[in-house]
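Q: What structure does this chain adopt?
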Amino acid sequence: MVRSESKGRPSEARSRLLDTACRLFYAEGIRGVGVDRIATEAQVTRATFYRHFASKEDLVLAYLGESDAVMRRRADEAVAAGLPAADTIRALSKSIARGIQSPGYRGCAFLNAVAEFPDPDHPIHMAVLAHRQWFLNKVTELLGDIRETPAEAAAQHFVMMRDGATAAGCLFDPAMVCDTFLQGVEGLLRNHVTGRKIAPAGS
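A:
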């Protein structure tokens, strides 16, 4: 269990541990970074580490929780702007594109994590799936606000495009990847508004 100081505020040591873990896990992978290195770079003792995190797994879950919170804030900001649902989808897509083009980008933290923890019963794997389900639900809700029709298929398509863009963004020219992604979003929105089904590949 993660401990915190009185009044619900995390301690400075815990914040340093989590900040260090977020940086190292994202840049170098989860399995390749050990507790000792995190404690050393966060300038805390091993005992202090275990006062705040019962295990490395707990720290990984906190890292994914931070990544989840960032995505939720972006979605909340897009919705809070009060734009029509289609423009909210566009704003969220542009936020994703900015992330892909940010310095040090190394792909989706969740896809990276699930690749390292493929067991579907592992808590880290389940945390990734929970985040993805939240994101799918949010996109489904927004697409449903555009047109009163089942939006699940269009939302799945959006999430798959997002997955492709976040994976390709660290392998190819990120500007090109983002341009392709945003064009794909526009096509998806047009098809969803008109009710056209997307033709299968090769048809």
